[in-house]
């Protein structure tokens, strides 16, 4: 492709630069430097983007990810020009409370593919978007029917490249030979601490070659439009390698402070803005100006062709649906974000007569049962497949066909020992749309390695699932480096996050039921290494409420509430207490978040007034006071040893629980007991 | 160096292999594969290690880090042979509860330099050890007096190389030209998911060359002792580059399952162990056998020379101390792990008449005041120096002298945008000894990126400090991607972790006082971006207790407890309440962990019976119930906007607090109120 650029293109680029600078100036807050350097590349990419601003969810759109999310004024400028629901007035409210142009791009805004800002995430999300596209294309494209051929473009800066999460995702992207991924590295040699020389002197191009990427270089990203276009064209032809285009730019191009870190994160001075406008041929006294010919260019060269491609795509889908009615219906269902009817019937149910099984194994059975019903399910593990039990029997690995190890229609991803990369990639897969349900396995303790991406899943509302096995000291010999303590407290404190810790088979089924049904909330499912019995009183119907009474008793002396592997021990503790004529109700609370959605009436029936509540869980007690008056937990690190011995040494036994229950009853004997659920505000 | 190896060397290597296999077999749990492949390299390294098993803390010892910590049976074998306090009986108790040989190596065991197991950490710690050595040498070595010239050796596997944290640390190590760091990559091509081909096909050697490392290759690490020795010798000569030796080995070398992932994480079958012993010329029916000539070799070639080097080093130190009495005394003080007398007098104190200042700025003043007194202080930032305010005015950067940007005696580290790497490096610096006090800055929200390393700091007891600025929605326009919510709840739930959130200058001084004095507990110091007033009632003496009564009032209706930036708003709320004749006590609780160390009597004086307690903090409420009956917090994500507007919209104002206080008082009016500190068990 050889593209001709006109004076209007240059005018458009100046417009983008100044619109971005004006946003930051109006807010007197933000990052003008990167937009000034990156405007040419943004313009050139946009000119070839498949997009329809009226249908930002179109599954075959090209995706653009701004991994250096602090440059968001640039993205808002692009979305405005290309017809998204973002007016000049919106741009003027940049970084103001309630604005559609917040300080970093947020996923819920049409046209923003992923929330970025925390560095390294966007480029890793882009790997996930590219994986999803490759999978979708390999699954549904047919000879003469190309339903998916979109690209994922990403901008990233030095900061993104320094973050380990991007190293993990980039190494995997090279392994997977994702030719649909094109990343433009804004090589401006400036970070907040000054020149990149102070900390970042590695050879980035060589590193990406080592990962198996195609690496190109544009020497003058500020002005050489033809070179940028040529590099992107070359990248598109690199079908079996992702491409990194190192594009040397000047941060704050045109500003009096160009090339220094002072243009990175603060508004330009008014005089500087004025000289910039004069330099670019604009009226220095006007702001937020878009010449009509720029709107016209975007309309005729970007929006109209995009709408036409969108319409053609819909026609192809209709013809496809005639020839392949089942697949066509499946695509339409997925694009509508609906699960197949009756899928949940495949979730297994258990009775107390069924044998004791580790919940990680019960999770495997769920995945095995539902995988054929849910083609949108795409799972994997961070190199713990045989421990996490995340792979179903017939699974085909998602691998480049040339590897001989699988193909792109495969739905099982070998993430390698890359927890953070995995979680960020899962966010990208989810953000692709088409109802993708991404799950990934690791030990619960190492979900913490992925905290940065897990937080963004919750903030963005990606309904991904972390299959988090080995969820306590119950893992035994591996010891305290592998035994989570603070982990559930951490993620329960994260807004919009389900944290399931099922106690048996029915609860595992319930956890998956809620996690897969939920459209905007991620879920951690914490699973045991050790076998657990199927409990009397458990049911999928109860457990989907997040909490329920497992065993009721009249005139109870105490409510014992527990989760996961401690629930069955608690049941035994209640039996022990009954021998002393102490009546204990038992509540199972597998997920706080889901329980909190239930009616107040229901919640108070689970935790009624008048009965002291004691929680039992071999993890940090923090957070339990929301439901329990007293907590028996583990506010210390664990120990290496056989699991039963570790449990015993820390008194997580029927006796240990019963003793504490008795003390709790005695403590509250002469006191008025109100449910912790009652709150003054 | 050209080393000759004898039959006894081969016997020693077989002994190491079998001792390791026997440990795993006795426990029927553990990882035999890596020790079998790595025993030759371990033996060869040990033969040139400077060590004194009777003085494992000797500051000029060579360090060995087992980054692939699951191979710990190997390390225990080496420590046993080289005379550390680890008997054959101890080896027999491998992975048993209370054993000195836990499932992964733990820092508190003599000879274990850092706790490893969570992958990627050890090699990153090794970078920290190498930084500390370079700094110590540059600070104290004098012509004719070499007090520090030790090496850091590390083993790492494919898993460590896939983890992003190791990428971050390795990139920085290359930048810093750490010639004292020698890493041996166990290229055995096997991970838990099987062949590394499934996920890890990058060119590791090229990647490390891109980082600026010297890269060597040993083709047969199983048997070619001369090649291993030669590579290590060459690595030692690489004075201005760290070295990665890619050593191709066979996992489970000698086992019937050699080269497969089934030898990775499970004991060998009894028959396999027997054939292995026969193959290596040992009696197949005996276990834990060490031929006397192997003990003799370790004694004469490793222990005795090490003790001699230790004695010589002490003589050098004595002579050095005569010539440089101040420096000599300083070294002795540091090696003893003592801070200088009176250092704490440099901590600034404030009165309410002093002006309002952001606590991040107050932190800068502390660092400025104490830096000249504490040569062991070595700080930095993950590319947020100008935001974290972590650099004192006269600071010299820790940089390779050839960069022209600093030197190795510099004590300010430009970590780049590498939070996880920074935290893991800080652990290594701390583990070096010599009383190093490492601190590192980032935004509070991005301490979460470093969770894996922060957890290991707490587990290992490294007294490092995270200078965590921008600690709430008070950061304003950057918005919810940057505003912490769950972060304090997360780290407060982590055992052995101080989490300070000081409210004014005196509390900032107190936070540093406790954090720097503490020898075995890391500290997060959460600091505001926005200005905060100096409070009536605050003092360093009070704040060092972790919590105290800021304003007492008789016959109080309520206790309001708060931290950081909300404390002054709470003071204003109390004034507002006073207008309605409501009496509010005010408690400041800057660090839960430190407060929990105080006497029960003191704690109950702070939170007495009979007065309902309400907490106020613009972060997740989880965890506050330990002290407060009710909590006003933020269990949702924040928003992008001007900080005062964000505060107001979420009602963190005197009015918002007062209204909730009134509701709390009304709620508890007719109820018996006991302090949350009372517990039945």
UniProtKB/TrEMBL annotation, chains A, B:
Keywords, comma-separated and alphabetical: Calcium, Magnesium, Metal-binding, Thiamine pyrophosphate, Transferase
Pfam family, one: Transketolase_N
Membrane spanning stretches: none
Binding site for thiamine diphosphate: 70, 117-119, 159, 188, 264, 446
Catalysed reaction, written as an equation: D-sedoheptulose 7-phosphate + D-glyceraldehyde 3-phosphate = aldehydo-D-ribose 5-phosphate + D-xylulose 5-phosphate
Cellular component, GO annotation: cytosol; nucleus
Domain (Transketolase-like pyrimidine-binding): residue spans on this chain: 357-534
Binding residues for Mg(2+): 158, 188, 190
PROSITE patterns, alphabetized: TRANSKETOLASE_1, TRANSKETOLASE_2
Active site (catalytic residues): 419 (proton donor)
GO MF, any single term: transketolase activity
BP GO terms, sorted: pentose-phosphate shunt
Xref: InterPro entries: THDP-binding, Transketo_C/PFOR_II, Transketolase-like_C_2, Transketolase-like_Pyr-bd, Transketolase_bac-like, Transketolase_BS, Transketolase_CS, Transketolase_fam
Cofactor binding, per record: Binds 1 Mg(2+) ion per subunit. Can also utilize other divalent metal cations, such as Ca(2+), Mn(2+) and Co(2+). Binds 1 thiamine pyrophosphate per subunit. During the reaction, the substrate forms a covalent intermediate with the cofactor.
Positions that bind substrate: 31, 264, 360, 387, 470, 478, 482, 529
Cofactor(s), names only, from the UniProt record: Mg(2+); Ca(2+); Mn(2+); Co(2+)
Swiss-Prot/TrEMBL site (Important for catalytic activity) positions: 31, 264
EC number assigned by the record: 2.2.1.1
Family of the protein in this entry: Belongs to the transketolase family.
Subunit structure: Homodimer.
Function according to Swiss-Prot or TrEMBL: Catalyzes the transfer of a two-carbon ketol group from a ketose donor to an aldose acceptor, via a covalent intermediate with the cofactor thiamine pyrophosphate.
Protein name: Transketolase
């Amino acid at each position: 492709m050889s593209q001709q650029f006109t004076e209007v293109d240059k005018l458009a680029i100046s417009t983008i630069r100044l619109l971005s600078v004006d946003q930051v100036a109006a807010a007197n807050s933000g990052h003008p430097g990167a937009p000034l350097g990156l405007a040419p590349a943004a313009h050139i990419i946009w000119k070839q983007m498949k997009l329809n601003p009226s249908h930002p969810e179109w599954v075959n759109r090209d995706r653009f990810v701004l991994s250096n999310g602090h440059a968001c004024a640039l993205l808002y400028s692009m979305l405005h020009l290309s017809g998204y629901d973002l007016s000049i007035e919106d741009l003027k409210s940049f970084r103001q409370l309630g604005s559609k142009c917040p300080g970093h791009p947020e996923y819920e805004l049409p046209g923003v593919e992923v929330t970025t800002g925390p560095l390294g995430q966007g480029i890793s999300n882009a790997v996930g978007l590219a994986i999803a596209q490759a999978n979708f294309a390999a699954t549904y494209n047919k000879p003469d029917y190309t339903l998916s051929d979109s690209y994922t473009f990403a901008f990233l800066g030095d900061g993104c490249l320094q973050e380990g999460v991007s190293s993990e995702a980039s190494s995997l992207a090279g392994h997977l030979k994702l030719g649909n991924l094109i990343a433009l590295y804004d090589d401006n040699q400036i970070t907040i601490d000054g020149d990149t020389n102070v900390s970042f002197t590695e050879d980035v191009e060589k590193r990406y070659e080592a990962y198996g990427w195609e690496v190109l270089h544009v020497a003058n990203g500020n002005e050489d439009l033809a070179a940028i276009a040529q590099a992107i064209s070359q990248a598109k032809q690199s079908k079996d390698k992702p491409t990194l285009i190192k594009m040397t730019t000047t941060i704050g191009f045109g500003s009096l402070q160009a090339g220094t870190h002072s243009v990175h994160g603060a508004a330009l001075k008014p005089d500087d803005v004025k000289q910039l406008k004069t330099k670019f041929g604009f009226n220095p006294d006007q702001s937020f100006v878009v010449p009509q010919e720029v709107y016209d260019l975007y309309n005729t060269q970007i929006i109209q062709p995009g709408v036409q491609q969108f319409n053609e795509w819909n026609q192809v889908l209709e013809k496809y649906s005639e020839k392949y009615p089942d697949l066509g219906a499946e695509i339409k269902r997925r694009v509508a974000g609906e699960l197949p009817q009756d899928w949940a019937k495949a979730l297994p149910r258990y009775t107390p007569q069924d044998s004791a099984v580790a919940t990680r194994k019960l999770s495997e059975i769920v995945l095995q049962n539902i995988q054929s019903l849910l083609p949108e399910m795409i799972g994997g593990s961070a190199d713990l497949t045989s421990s996490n039990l995340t792979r179903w029997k017939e699974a085909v690995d998602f691998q480049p066909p040339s590897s001989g190890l699988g193909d792109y229609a495969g739905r099982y991803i070998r993430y390698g020992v890359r927890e953070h990369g995995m979680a960020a990639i899962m966010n990208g897969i989810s953000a692709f749309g088409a109802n993708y349900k991404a799950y990934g396995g690791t030990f619960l303790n190492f979900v913490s390695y992925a905290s940065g991406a897990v937080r963004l899943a919750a903030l963005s509302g990606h309904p991904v699932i972390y299959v988090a096995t080995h969820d306590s000291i119950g893992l035994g010999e591996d010891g305290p480096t592998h035994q989570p303590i603070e982990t559930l407290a951490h993620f329960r404190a994260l807004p919009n996050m389900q944290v399931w810790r099922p106690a048996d088979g029915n609860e595992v089924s319930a956890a998956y039921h809620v996690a897969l049904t939920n459209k905007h909330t991620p879920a951690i499912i914490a699973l045991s290494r050790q076998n657990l019995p199927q409990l009397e009183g458990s049911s999928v119907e109860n457990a989907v409420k997040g909490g329920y009474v497992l065993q009721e008793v009249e005139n109870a002396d105490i409510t014992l509430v527990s989760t996961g592997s401690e629930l069955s021990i608690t049941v035994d503790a209640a039996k022990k207490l009954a021998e002393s004529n102490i009546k204990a109700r038992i509540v199972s609370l597998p997920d706080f978040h889901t329980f909190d959605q239930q009616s107040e009436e229901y919640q108070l029936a689970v935790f009624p007034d008048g009965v002291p509540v004691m929680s039992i869980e071999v993890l940090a007690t923090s957070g339990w006071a929301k439901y329990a008056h007293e907590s028996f937990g583990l506010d210390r690190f664990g120990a290496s040893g056989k699991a039963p011995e570790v449990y015993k040494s820390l008194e997580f036994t029927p006796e240990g629980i019963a003793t504490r229950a008795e003390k709790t009853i005695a403590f509250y004997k002469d006191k008025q007991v109100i449910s912790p659920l009652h709150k003054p505000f």
